[in-house]
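Q: Protein A?
A:
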Amino acid sequence: MHPRISLSALSLIAVVILGGFSAIGQVSNGGGDMDLSTRPGTKGKPTTVHIYCVLTDIRDIVDVHQSVEASIGFFLSWNDPRLAHSGDGSIHRLLSTIWDPGIVVLNGNEMEVEDDRRVEVRPDGTVILEQFLRDSFFQTFDLRPFPFDRQELEIQFLSIGHVPDDLVIVPHPDWPSRVSPTFSVQDWKITGWRTETGIYRLAEDAPGRSTFKLIVEAERGRPYFIFKVILPMILIMGMSWLVYWIHPSKVDAQIGVGATSMLTLIAFRFTVDRLLPEISYMTRLDLFILFSMVLVFANLTESVATAHLYSSGREGIAIRIDAYGRWLYLVVLTAVIFFTLMI
């Protein structure tokens, strides 16, 4: 055999063998030349991302900030046929090397996303992404019934960068979301929870985004405000009622009792204000304090009026006004309590 022909043949055989190994490597890599960063699925059909959440704890509900401090784990899964492999079990890949659905918490703080997050990839191409958050989730509270209010606490997940024609978020059919039976938060009672899916828009003409909500229904505990705020205020109103039992000649004592009651109510007013955000409407407790202050001011006015009548020689009229005022005051105070706190 000619030496040159022999070398050419060997070179050809080497090229064929190396090319074969290269092809085998591409197949074993699940299609290494594919662009795995693009959305999986067929064009014109949205990619379905399944989600399920586990709310493990609610640490605090902060009225003044309208936020909920909670711990939650959520799991996302979707199918990418390009990632299917022939292994017996799951493999793990960097999320940065494949398509990312871009699911974020809409009403939470900025999520700290790690660059080396890994996902589980099952043989059929199902991708599973796990995330755990300890965060403050912003809310919009309706505080009009405060302190006898109920609130719906939401944690909302949203897909950024994908319209519903490209991606939809749905609850996982096999892994239902769960909520812990007990929480760390005090003075609140969890009465129920549910999940909702829908479309979220920043404006009416803005493109929608697929969204998923975990909603927890909570009722504020009443004993704290009843025994530490409302009952002491009723006792203060009872102290103000005593001016009707003081003789009109002792105007200094009447004014002293009324002024003390008014200053104490103002102190309660500032205490309650520190518990709530700056809102433009009145709560039930606001109305109760306001009408209580009006009653105390009316008592002060009555004290000055009866003192003037007494000094003018009309003691009988002053005493009769005090007698009628004792019962009228109780009727008005009962109406204030009923209409502001009970209805």
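Q: Protein B?
A:
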Amino acid sequence: MTIVNVTLDPSNKSPGIILSNDNLTLSSNRNSSYVIATHGKTKGKWYWEVKFDSGSAISIYIGVGNINFKISSSNWSAVQIRGAVPGDTIGLALNMDDYRLRYFKNGTELTDLERKIEHLGEGIFPFLNSASTAPKSATINFGSTPFKYPIPEGYLPYIDYHVRHALFTKNNQSFSITDPKPTDLVPKMTSNTLPSGIVKASSSASAGSEYRVFDKNKSGAVWVTSKSNRTGWIQYSFLNKTIVNRYGITPQLNAIDRAPRSWILSASNTGIFDGEEVVLDVRENYPDWNDETKYFDIPNNTDYLFYRLTITENNGSPDYTGLSELELFYRETKLVKLSSQTEEDFIKHGLDMPIDVCSFNGEVSINKNSNDLGSGKTFEHTIDLSKRKTNKISLNGS
């Protein structure tokens, strides 16, 4: 772990934002004016604080945005802190392992403000937005000075940073790879066949309730197997062949013992599932259940019609096995062209390791975080792929 000088980014802000105090204090009397941090996160659990210094505290939105951030887009998630006044300190706890953002006011968690941010994808940056013309100022602390309140258990100061990053180069041009927000492939189902696709299950405690795992309501009705069934499967069939490379499971609230402990995600183009299916993911003795959604990435680049989650063991219930939600996603990995290859590029745009890269052709130079680049170092390794196609490149930092 390395300490990086994280500040608000003077090169990525609206004209109505004035920065001072080494780019840690924001002042503004403009509406819809924003600034984001110089560095983002792709994994881990991170904490920082924002102190309201003066003016209209409730007209400052505090939150996060992704690498495609624009104030007019949906690539951000933020809240106003109702009742906030100058002197209040707002803590933010970003959990990139399950895409969750928590808020604290003067050390007390504001549970009603918690946000799920999986729609933002990877590459998350803290940001502030001035939402009115009333004068206001606030100071952000990423951890360069002691925090006013204790860091939540399991989190680290945002200023701590992994610097094992990688960039790709070809013909002296640098590239990175970014994951856009996952696309939810299944519509909000209102029955087993509407609005599209077909939902089936091995059994159900309530006939016709299978679609509940795709109704986009994680705290509502659920699908469970018929009584005394500790195993079972739930399946969705698309109208057209579709690639799924990420999925999410939400257990039944307050019934973690019914959650799957071991399971198989498989796919088929016949729907028979009698040996012709392709196994996409296998999980055994998965212990980490609570009332939150867990997401799983799978290396699948093939489209199928039928996807089935087969639960081979539940989490201890003698009566039922079931889910609140099953989500199926597609995430397209995109190549990002960079104009330079500086230390800042490595830190801000480089890929955290380990990483997997699919389907590259030609000669690719892979650079990772010893030619001197300021305070960082780079190692270069060249792979000649001109005579054959490679389906996957894996990098593991050490």
